[in-house]
């Protein structure tokens, strides 16, 4: 390498690095965009596909969702056929003995929500279900329904509700059996 | 390196590293070394393992070993119906889930002869092109990372985050999208989406110039990539390379233009082709540059789609829930961000495929790795592998 090429290389390198650094420096004086989760959080999109919300009183246990599931993670047991009672708008007939989803298998594709004739299952807003064993990854929605909940409450949310305002709101809503997903959030078919 | 002279001893050494009990004939005097790069290595893009035969700094041979991420995708398809498999195509090339969904839907529609509504086709093209940008951003960001430039990665992921937010509004997921399904798309565009998309394109286009300053025309980057890993026209055709890799070698092969599908005939765009601007034609820099140029073309396509999309209309064809397709065979090709993605479906009627074969572009492109890495220096290997831009989810399937 000639002396000219050698110094040319050094010049080019320093020049292109300083161009890069000037861009970096430009961003150095801008506001930070980092959000300190869980104290703060970003809004989730209305169509967000999180852990399901299930309304046991509307479910007619028709097995459509379990059939649509590609990974067979929905377990449904019933004592007798159920159907929607026109007078009350709720499902009646046999008892819905079990409706469980195994979240160690679920891949959140939302294919189960499509065929539901009574719109009793849709994707919710929670994304941080946790437990101490694999067994706890199986969510028994019928058990939750007896507590008046439509979706499982994450452990951390239950324990830290008094520390973080938005968590307290969310906890109250879930405990009261309200939907985290609004009707407007559920995309039309 | 040199041919064995008479007084050197050649021994058969078995390292147990090559499959099938292939022993290496190694000249002990020159001390070649077998070096395992991967499967857990920061610059091999996933669980790719490359066995390098080195003589000092020089690479005598490189052999990719694959299969660490094999999940029997093709076999799984034989037990699922055509709608259900969409979730699995997300996980093939997980950086371009939308493109895989689109390719799968196209293959099934070709097999079952389904007409897709016009609006659905436009939504598909919009989401596919968005994902193409997102995929190229990861590719460009991690390529900088491979060569020691950390900053471009952060910039690339900032813009990618924007796209993922758009996807979240579109279908609720960010990575495993499952949005495009047989017959159309699962949900219509959310209100105000096209406006947000236009805002994104306006925001994104000037950023490409920023990437150029940061990485493309950085002197060190050019020195590391120009004239390295040159794929000649001959090699490209012999290995059936596709996507940005073949276009980097100056061959304008793009299925979106050559065998147009969906609404691509109605859209105007240029096929980015490498020109050997910084060194030999078909080197790592050319392949990189083609991806940057393609992002510009994606923006151009997106702008046209925003103008041309029908305001009203169905977004999914009416199909029975248990869809039975006629018996037959079909092969559908698709221009994935990494090359030609093909789904070959054999159906014997009924609701499930009898056999599925996936032609993954990363898998085919990876094959030329050993040819490219022969005779280069050790530090060039990450540059070459990075420019091949493999996604192991698709290589192993």
Helix content of chain B: 40-55%
Order of helices and strands of chain B: EEEEEHHHHHEEHHHHHHEEEHHHH
- The overall average pLDDT of chain B, rounded, is 85
> What is the CA-atom radius of gyration of chain B, in angstroms?
22 Å
Tally of domains of chain A: 2
Tally of DSSP β-strands of chain A:
7
CATH fold field value of the largest domain in chain A: Alpha-Beta Plaits
DSSP strand (E) fraction of chain A?
5-15%
Architecture per CATH nomenclature, i.e. the level-2 architecture of the largest domain in chain A: 2-Layer Sandwich
Task: Give a short summary of the structure.
The complex is a heterodimer of chains A (189) and B (397). With 189 residues, chain A is of the alpha+beta class.
Looking at this protein, list some descriptive labels.
heterodimer; A: 189 residues; alpha+beta; Alpha-Beta Plaits; 2 domains; three-stranded antiparallel β-sheet; two-stranded antiparallel sheet; 5 helices; elongated; B: 397 residues; disordered N terminus
Task: Give an account of the 3D structure.
- The complex is a heterodimer of chains A (about 190) and B (about 400).
- Chain A contains five helices and seven strands; from the N terminus they run H-E-H-E-E-E-E-E-E-H-H-H.
- Chain A is α+β, with helices and mostly antiparallel strands and about 190 residues long.
- Chain A has two domains: about 30 residues; about 120 residues, Alpha-Beta Plaits, CATH 3.30.70.3270.
- Chain A is elongated and about 90 Å long.
- The mean pLDDT of chain A is about 85.
- Chain B is built from 15 helices and ten strands.
- In chain B, strand 9 and strand 10 form a beta hairpin.
- The chains are: A alpha+beta (about 190), B alpha+beta (about 400).
- At the A-B interface, helix 1 of A face helix 2, helix 5, helix 6 and helix 7 of B.
